Amino acid sequence: MLKDFQKFGRDLFLAGLNSSHSGNLSVRCGDRIIITRRGAMLGHLEERDLIETGLEKNDSNIILASTEIRVHRAIYKGTAALAIVHAHPVHAVALSLLEDEIIPVDSEGAYLLHKVPVLSAEHTIGSKELEEKLPTLLKEYKIVMVRGHGSFAVGQVLEEAYQWTSCLEHTCRITCLTRTFKRDLQEKRTSRYREW
Amino acid sequence: MILCGWSGKALRVNLSSGRITCEDIAPKVLADWIGGRGLGAWTVAGEIPAGCDPLGENNKLVFAAGPLTGTGVPGTGRFSASSKSPLTGTIFDSNAGGRWGVRLKKSGFDMLIIEGVSSAPVYLTITDGQAALHEAGNLWGADVIETNSNLKNMLGKDTSIACIGPAGENLVRFASIMNEGHRALGRGGLGAVMGAKKLKAIAVQGSKKVNVADAEKLNFIVYEAGKWIKANPITSQGLPEFGTPVLVNLFNELGVFPARNFQASQFLSAARISGEAIAETIFAGRQGCHGCPVQCTRLIKTPKTGITAGPEYESIWALGPECGIDDLEVIAEANYLCNRLGLDTVSTGVTIGCAMELVEKGILKAGFTFGDAAGLPRIVKQIAYREGTGNLLAEGSRRLAEKFGAGQYAMQVKGLELPAYDPRGLQGMGLGFATSNRGGCHLRAYMAGPEALGVPKMVDRFDTGGKAGLVINQQNINAAIDSLIACRFINMAVSEEYFARILSAATGIDYSPQDLYRIGERIWNLERLYNLRAGLDSSFDTLPPRLLEEPVSEGPSRGKTVELEPMLAEYYRFRGWDESGIPLPKKLQELELEG
């Protein structure tokens, strides 16, 4: 378990999907959650950075858990997810400030993600609002952007949630790049995903 | 000049003459020392002779609110009391929540100075700028709950009472001043100072409005801070759900939860007395300071206590594992008795633990030893009334152990009993204990934050390198926060920048975070200078021999002692003090203090 957290935590940081102390990872183990410690550096996770606490019930470890614990819990309770990756991918965050939904323009993004909704909330960190709204969206989508904050991706294992995160940032980079060229896209197929 | 945040007024009550006067406090004094602990330290240092007998006529008791008290900002309804401690002989401040401080402020005062000694028991009433002394013969001997309800019945429900119980009257050196029945200005025996002055209670009513400079800005900062308080699992989940006992299991698992007078650093039955155990057994509700979103007080219900405020983390530990006791209901009962009788739970438990070890080693003959749950309530009462062995324990662990030539078994620093952290597994905490100006205290520098909870960031708890700087910064900023006067739990979720901004909005004076560090450093050095004048030199900056010489025998901290010497040397240098711990002239000049 620790090795998986270390592997994907490190990759998220090295790929620029998180800054030094941002983001968090978790997995669900029955009625327990293992989540990264509040303020842990995902690029340098150690055993003490993995905090086990209840899915429904708090225990004393709650005071060590990530600030987003309430959102992770809500997602697990509202979906079939077994793993969650929360990241702050730069290009995706930038696009989330401009768009109400992110429609991939590249093949991989279109194939894997189709469309990524952007959720607006007044309180974007560890908030009750996200706790209420994110699970509903994540029933339909693999990954959701919280405007100006970051992504929440779900999977059956950490690798899966990591893949959606990586893919989203990749597609957003392409979108940003194409916009810098100030020319119309030759490929129009993405429009159909607006109705996805 | 129109002051915002402060009233600029102090009330002075001389119990020897009965004279009551209202004084102005200079705006510069308020701006420099803020309130609470800072204002208290400035007054104590300026008015109380360092060599005086803490229980004599020359000692004074200084109550102070802060510029945020009464503004409605969450976590700021606190007040402090400062004096020379009869337990430690040091300058000492202790603070508590509740409404007493708010009402003192709304009665028109930032500070209340009690001086002299009354010839007979009295209580003081303060109502919207007016104060009077009243004969208290009928209250003398009453416990805290009785005193509180008698005075409230007489004066009205909108009255807040700070009072002492029998322990304060009997000059127990760790007697507390109690506020609203269960809120304690617990540490340092300031209740005994009040008892020596024959002052049973101070009843306060206040209806004045506290002016702030920029209410709109203040509200916005509070709103922004509220996001963090609501998001942080410590302030939004751990403390609201379990209160401070949330720490029991955590620190026990780390091997920093002392047991049996620090003979062990883990307690096998910790789970039975944890926050989770309370929630499942004796929990009866939540309570908190006025307007606070955290609501960390646990109400509990047991056959012996009825519904009452439950024991905090430190109290559970001191009256439980420290004495080898794992019976939650007995611990709750002992905690309840301490509150009723007006005793500091930490010093009570640790002194009993010390006595238990003396009994175990055949040094002291008494009818109790480790694990004696049935006897615990009896011992607590004996201390408060100074009966039998209790009379020895009422002097505190240091005087008790030294009386038998066994001072090494007293788990104290400068006479103040240590709290619930084994510093052998938290090296920085050890330095914090040793250098604390009021003795063995975890609140001056809460190094368990970075060393165990990752607040603000996680550091290696066994490492000594760099700890001096962290301890100093915590000591400095906490001295400022204790002057605002704000709750430390809020500090778990927000940074010092928040406190600087909110202080600026309330007072209209521009404070930066660095200003707060400097104010804290001035307070720290002022306190140090007072202690030096009182005869507490660097030889008092140490720890009990057990923590320096006896390695932990098992658990995650196995094999560790506190490596104090290198940390202490670095600490003195970092502070700008000489190798004897005396502030150098250059430092005093920089801080604009007189040596």
Q: Which descriptors would you attach to this protein?
A:
heterodimer, A: 196 residues, alpha+beta, L-fuculose-1-phosphate Aldolase, eight-stranded mixed sheet, B: 595 residues, Aldehyde Ferredoxin Oxidoreductase,  A, domain 1, Aldehyde Ferredoxin Oxidoreductase Protein, subunit A, domain 2, Aldehyde Ferredoxin Oxidoreductase Protein, subunit A, domain 3, 3 domains, six-stranded mixed sheet, 17 strands, 40% helix
Please give the structural blueprint:
The complex is a heterodimer of chains A (about 200) and B (about 600).
Chain A: H1 2-14, E1 24-29, E2 32-36, E3 50-54, H2 69-78, E4 83-87, H3 90-96, E5 101-102, H4 107-112, E6 116-119, H5 128-140, E7 143-146, E8 150-155, H6 158-180
Parallel strand pairs in A: 6-7
Antiparallel strand pairs in A: 1-2, 1-4, 2-3, 4-8, 5-6, 7-8
Helix pairs in contact in A: 1-6, 2-5, 3-6
Chain B: E1 9-14, E2 20-24, H1 27-33, H2 36-47, E3 61-64, E4 79-84, E5 91-96, H3 100-106, E6 111-115, E7 122-127, E8 130-135, H4 144-155, E9 160-163, H5 166-169, E10 177-179, E11 183-185, H6 190-196, E12 199-205, H7 215-231, H8 233-242, H9 247-254, H10 275-280, E13 283-287, E14 297-302, E15 306-309, H11 313-319, H12 328-341, H13 345-360, H14 376-384, H15 389-393, H16 397-403, E16 412-413, E17 416-417, H17 427-435, H18 448-453, H19 467-484, H20 496-507, H21 513-533, H22 545-549, H23 564-575, H24 585-591
Parallel strand pairs in B: 1-6, 7-12
Antiparallel strand pairs in B: 1-2, 3-4, 3-6, 4-5, 7-8, 9-10, 9-12, 10-11, 13-14, 14-15, 16-17
